[in-house]
Amino acid sequence: MPEPLKFSRRLAVLPLFLLMAGCDMVVMSPSGDIAAQQRDLIVISTILMLLIIVPVVFLTLFFAWRYRRSNTSATYDPEWHHSTALEVVIWSAPLAIIIALGAITWISTHKLDPYRPLDRLDAERAIPADAKPLTVEVVALDWKWLFFYPELGVATVNELAAPVDVPIHFKITASSVMNSFYIPALAGQIYAMPGMETKLHAVINKQGEYEGFSANYSGDGFSHMRFKFHGLDRQGFEEWVSRVKTQGTALNRDTYLKLEKPSQREPVRYFARVEDGLYTAILNLCVTPGKMCMQQMMHIDMMGGAGKESAGNREKLEYDNRHSLAEGAPAATQPATGTPARSQQEPQGTGGGEQPMQHPMPGMGAHQGHSMPGMNHESDHENDPAPAQLNH
What we know:
Elements: H1 3-21, H2 33-66, H3 84-111, E1 120-122, E2 125-126, E3 134-141, E4 144-149, E5 154-157, E6 159-163, E7 168-174, E8 179-183, E9 187-192, E10 198-202, E11 208-214, E12 226-232, H4 234-247, E13 249-251, H5 253-259, E14 269-274, H6 278-283, H7 294-302, H8 310-316
Parallel strand pairs: 3-7, 6-12, 13-14
Antiparallel strand pairs: 1-2, 3-4, 4-5, 5-14, 7-10, 8-9, 8-11, 11-12
Domain Cytochrome oxidase subunit II transmembrane region profile: 19-116
Region (Disordered): 329-392
Keywords: Cell membrane, Electron transport, Lipoprotein, Membrane, Oxidoreductase, Palmitate, Respiratory chain, Signal, Transmembrane, Transmembrane helix, Transport
């Protein structure tokens, strides 16, 4: 082959190495102990599987070469049909690996249960007896993240911070559609669902700025639903809290109802004061005045149900028509035809053979927003924007 052609072929491979250099290997090089243990599971599982895959690939190539037609010295035995020793090797090796993987899976499933409090800071340090976890309440909004620090009385939007080597106890929920809370450097992803609370225990072991995002598609602004997680020393964390209290405003129910409306590329916001019980109201889908909290309904069910007042309770428990009155509010999903949901306009290119739905099902308000639990916005502040704050 001519030398110029060989050189050009070698140059063609260089862009592949450049693409590989741009890969973010945070999952394989995390900064939190839980993520590190999950990384170890990936490595161990891969090695165990390679113990079978590599010999099989090698023997496949070896047999193809060894018993090729042109190799007349290879033994040809068309009557061969069984070897006990070979059967033992073929079945015992995979069985041993499956047993090992099963044992590792069973142990790690319990040890790395996100609901299980931590028992160590890292592989070499146990949790001090006097250590107090930092509680963070997480709310997935459209399309932004709201973080409450109940012990500190502050809240933030799209920014999270925690001190190094301090256990973190996350309580996670959502305002409307399902999302997934994920900081690759800290721990695995945990779903955020409306009306439900999931939990995650984790710890960050190195100072730094890490990426957090939603790992579950949730509509128009999903790709920009990201935040920064700051791992700080104790002094740095205290300074961060002081900055939040100095620059922040108040977060009450009215402010939250404006904040929860769908928006994209939301800037970082600080709230120095938080109304008592706001997170509990978000979790129970009763921030909007007049709505019954889910825990109240569950208490009624536990007591055997209500009487004649059940009809009145039904209206208080309708959450599926949130944002239905807000004109032009971005939707979590958009039909491919561009025609709003339940519109009487016939979509283009669909055949035109069916009549549009004239009457929605009872209890389902016609809307262009989310179909997951949410709240009505019928107050005088329906279309007011969220209060402006500093961009950080």
